[in-house]
Amino acid sequence: MKVNKNNKLLLVLLLLVSGFTFAQQTISGLVTDEAGVPLPGATVVVNQTNNGTTTDFDGNFSISASDGQSISISFVGYQTLSIVVGDGADYNVSLQPDSLLDEVVVTALGLSREKKSLGYSVSEISGDNINTVKDHNIASSLTGKIAGVNITQSGSIGSGSRITIRGNNSIGGNTQALIVVDGVPINADGIDSGGSVYNSQVTGGGITDINPNDVESISVLKGPNAAALYGSRAGNGVILITTKKGSKSDRLGVTLNTNVTFDDPMFLPEYQNQYGQGSLGAAGTDLVNDWYTGSWGQRLDGSSQLYFNGQQRSYSGQPDNVSDFFRTAMRAITSVSLDKGSESGSVRFSYTNNSTESILPNSDLESHNFNLRGTAQLSDKLSIDSKATYFTQNVNNRASLGGEGVLAYVYTMPRNVDVNDLMDYQMANPSTPAEFGVISYDKRGSTTGNPYWMLMHDRNDERRGRFLGFTKINYEFNDWLSAFVRLGSDITDIKRGSIEKPGHHFYPDGRMSKSQSTSTELNSEFLITAKKDITDKLDLVFNAGGNLSKRTSEGLGISGRNFKIPTRFFISNLNEINPPSERPQAIKKVNSLYGALNLSYDDFLYLDVTARNDWSSTLGEENRSYLYNSASLSALLNRFIDPSQEVFNLIKLRASWAQVGNDTSPYQLYQTFSVPGQGYLGLTTLGSPSVKLNPDLLPETVTSTEFGLELSALENRLTFDISIYDMSTIDLIFNVPVPPATGFSFFKENVGKVQNKGVEINLGGTPIKTSNFSWNTSVFFAKNENTLVELIDDLESITYNTTNSGNASIRATVGGGLGDIYGTVWDTDDSGNNIVNANGLPIASSSLEILGNANPDWLGGWSNSFSFGDLSFSFLIDARIGGQIYSQTSAGLDSSGVSERSLLYRDSGVTLNGTNTETNSANTVPITSQQYWGSYSSIAENYIYDQDNIRLREFALGYRLPGLDEIGLQSATLQLIGRNLFFFSKSAEDIDPEAMLGTALGAQGFTSNALPTLRSVGFNVTLNF
Amino acid sequence: MKKVNLILSGFFVLFLISCTDDFNEINEQPNALSADDVSAKFFVTNLQTGLFAPNRYPYWRGPVIHVDRYAGHTAFGFSANWWSDGLGYDYSAGYTGAVYGYMSGYNSQLTAFSNFVKPGGTLENEQYYAISLIMKGLYYQMYSDTFGMVPFSESSNPDITNPKYDSHKEIYSGIISGLDEAISIIGSNSTTGTGPEVLTDNDLFFNGDLQKWKGLANSLKLRIALRANGAPGEDFSAKAASEALSSGVLGDTDALIKRDLEISTWSSAVYGDIWHAFYGGGHWNLAATMVDILRDNNDPRLYKYAVPSKGGTVTIKKPTEGENVALIDKHIAFLKDHFDESGAEYTMTETAEDVTITMPDNANYVGFPTRTNARPKPYLHTDFFSKPADVIVNPKNSGKPIFPWIVMSAGDTHLMAAEAIVKGLASGDAESHYKTGIRHAMKLWEVDDAEIDAYLSTDMGTLSGSTEKQLEKIATQRWLANYTNGYEGWAIVRDSGYPSELYEGVSDRDIYALGTTLNGAYPQRMRYGGGAYNSNGDNLEAALSVQGPDVQGTKLWWAK
Questions:
Q1: Out of B43, B321, B519, whose CB is closest to A917?
Q2: Could you say which DSSP state residue A69 is in?
Q3: Which of A121, A302, B44, B413 has a beta carbon 3.0–4.6 Å from A723's, enabling a disulfide?
Q4: Tens digits of per-residue pLDDT, A676-725?
Q5: Do B43 and A578 touch (CB under 8 A)?
Q6: Of A448, A505, A442, A445, the residue nearest A291 (C-alpha)
Q7: B345 φ/ψ angles, rounded to the nearest 5 degrees
Q8: What is the interface pTM, i.e. ipTM, of the complex?
Q9: Domain spanning A122-266+329-397+458-664+695-817+855-883+947-1024: CATH superfamily
Q10: pTM value?
């Protein structure tokens, strides 16, 4: 949106002249695009007045204006056009699309920059891109759209996602991207990222609390090069979210949007329906002792059997018992926004209601988001921009994943159990503890969970309230110097509670817990910007600023067990209350000063240099101050190679180098002792810490180099962008495991080196563009290679997570990567034959072997949008190739004999090929299929799947309806939308390879009883008044 | 303009004054104590419970799953039991790793304490240092008896991140030197100091009585000496045993961990925490070896250690499909033989389709056969077998007593004295020690004097017969006296080879779990946990080349 300087001058002169004439008149015109297609909804404003309107459905507008006044006509994605009102003026205009050359993107600290001038890679997507096929978690809508961004999720409602950009940079600290909203970093503390192999619960927080409807655009700063100005928080890249402001039109704009989708499991594991509950090929006979949880019984023969609930039932297959457990879940996100403005200010209010059901019964989420944004031009030099957002969310019964999660009892349900029979999960009018006991499919008083009990009877809730707001005051000293101060705050309050009622399968006495935590982040910053054209050709922009960041977190929790009166559930009704756990307020402060110098020479050569010094309260006096620099260069070579733009509109080479840091959490320096909540026999006791702390801790240092080439050709119809980068982190802050013989379990040290190398390629274009049909397409490919280059002498690996039985673990290994998957294999003898024990069963290796890595080799995405008159159609296909995952889900399906796979050897049993360790000769001992699968399922290598999958991630089919003047409707859009419709290909059986156990690093490459991936189909309606 | 300039300059000032003045202060944890706030006595309790009464995770995987069963004290594998056949005999990296993690990890607690109180330490105090040496001895005996070679001479030194592994012999003689040092430091002292330094109730063993600590040191020294006696290259046991006895062992005092009846299972666990947690799927019975020896000798401890079989009627449907079709007759015969050998009162009626077993309520003491596998499991109903006495498995917060953890008992000490005398390592009246040992062991379980006297008049209560027979009796009595402490019970079996039916292992795979690599042999040790390979692998490999492969069957230095 560059207006020629001379034109500007002319405009001002004309305006001055026009001040003497006041012939008010109604003018009308037609606004079209460059191909002549009418543009409905374009903004028409009489400059310097409060007078404005928008074009109707056919692109027509009419507005009152006086001769000599000028009107501005603007539309997103097109260059703004100004017309001076007067005789002979033509108000039928065709707008030209924004040239790529002039594209402006939001960069670090919220600074808008011309994209062509950047020496590093930034990707931006518009709000529409995440608002059509909408999810309450914005991260889900980013998947597959931006090269270099890897998003995994854990599936339960209201859960967060893991967002990493260009790989994992740290072995112990945070590796996820920083989220910045309107220039203010938001707090990501207090988020439970799950990963427990027993019960993994991932809470929301961070990006999940941002309302998608309020998003104007999202800019992704990939790594330190782009994010250097964020200093010690820049190491993992930044996701910059810019929210909507009110328009400057004096017309009241009202937008109503409803997005309703219906979710169903995209797929379920393949089940066998031939054999029922039992063991060793026989059904149980005794209600109390003989009912087994496994489906290793006899053939389902329809005979009458006494079932777990004391009823006679036909011993026959229930092919749909698992799918019947899930419901079709509706999610509805409805929002209304009002905005109005003038040249001197604007206001926008929005309210969004999100009501999302889980496919699990009695599990849902409800949230409300209130957002008020105001801008005002207080004087010709002083302006203010302020926003307040309040978000409140209630999650009811978020499901746990993992070995003891609710789905552990659904997926492996015996094949003959009617799921409806499980709804009677407790005796009527129980009185004794035994009568209170849960009735599950093996018996009453079971240690096997009943999924209905867990969801309908127990309680698990989370309520969060979050305030996000900022005020920015900007002052223009003169035409080259301006400054702003900005105060941003983010306050999150979380209340969580859980109740396991008496009779619960693991907690027969019942137990409950409640906790409350508060985390805040306050940022106070200033920035001074000076713009000077030093010579005709050399322009300079200098920014200098500082930031005071204060982050706090605190909490209090209370829990207990054994209810006095087992029918009501509150703390004072507990017999045993544990001492409350207190987390006094922990404060982390980081002070920063920074500066950035941008030089541009003759509009073809651009140089950026930045420096930032941080002072972190988490480090010792000697080490708390650290300075980081970055430099980047970009050159537009098209002027020399193709000056007349015959083929190329843009040829840009860029290079950058950056260094940033990463500090640590509070209290990592000096040894202390804590008083346990419960001293033994009431005595005051003290324990000693297992981590040897380190007063000389240094910040981690991330150094990154990036090169890129951008091409735009054929009148910008074809674009190409490639980036290659090499990023390494040293001085990793880590609790190094040491032999306990040293007197500690861990030494906190700066150790090792992690490297990420990769390439990102974007190819985009508009293959077809006629007056009434256009097709836009873009495809990206992003490959990242992660290596743990070195750690510390004599330490080969770090283990992040291990299964209960110890047969698989997630590690970082020297020479390997972060997220290496290790597991047992079928052991072999010296000559390489598989070995079996005296019983004929496979022997698992005693050591864990490398079986894969949790990170994909590459990610790809292909977005397409078609428009044909009022119809539009878009779809997104994305690919995740390479990388592995250990599926504990599949192992559980096999060991319990419910999977289709487990039919193998059912009737015959098998004598495994291999060497029998007892006889040291070929094995001759036969085993049953139950034994076979029992052993097979315990060997990790059998359940390592490739993550390879290609899926139709999103589609939207839209129709733009004519406006209805009678009710003031300007425009209406109706879209049919869908997500996760089908896989073009998928390697893994049973599971979705993107559904990880949690969002923690150690939960990657590991899935255990995750919720089925949801296939969502629904509609999106937008009404503009 | 002025206003704005004011705002901006205000901001700069804010920056300058805020600086970093409060950075040190906010980085001090408000809910933690520094070394200045604390006294050594507060650490003693956790030093004791951390080793002998850890939280439920290692408690379950250590005593319940592994060592009590290896010791032949308990057994499980009944029809409604959770566990797969052979649990503990089959190798499980996770369960083994949990025990290794807890035991190797204890060293950080011990080292932190000894570094505080050692000469030059923050809380320097010679008497507490003596206590740390005795705890170190108790720890390394239990730790090395479970796994074998471990780092000892280079451990507890934060400057050595990769300590070498020491041979079992070196560890044992090292423990004895440490105990000698402690004994000499204590001398005739009885308290740890004055004022805040006085140790009283924080010492769960002896309420701060240093002379009793000295007795414990001598008892431990005797235990070490006896275990080492006869091992290859061993040259210190005779001296150590006689020194210990003359310096004064625990004559009539037991070193026990009294139970906290309310503490959370995640701070310190008891058997009842596991017993009552999960509806009985993780229950266990008394092992047949234990019940048989008690019952066959009319031992009054039978009624203290166990409750009778609950009894009832169960109909076993004979399998019509699967591998058990061929084995059902063998399994029924096995059960019948076992009931008969146990002298149980029961009826068994068999038809073509099923077998009905009826056992009268609370009438029999029948032990559960050790090491059974999944094949006979459907027919082994837990109510046909004796379970642990209530005092062992009582839940917390029930107002009911819970049996303490036995660290070192007077009973075992006297039995050890008898053993030392019979083995010719010391002089004295072996018979008298034997009888006193049994008396103390029974007193600990509140057996009446009359019943004790009656028992002492039987053959089993008399130290008679050949030397080997006498050693068998002593070993058996020590094994009985350490019931509920499977770590020690298991070590006694490995050292002595008694009770021999246990030590012989199993062979019939139709009934018994032979184990992943044991092939039926008696387990001699537990494998090292994965952490040992990861963080100090080279030294571990060097140790394996001395000790033998890292499998359960590899015998330790002192094993029979």
A1: B519
A2: -
A3: A121
A4: 777 899 898 888 778 889 999 999 999 999 999 999 998 888 999 999 99
A5: no
A6: A442
A7: -95, 120
A8: 0.88
A9: TonB-dependent receptor, beta-barrel domain (2.40.170.20)
A10: 0.83
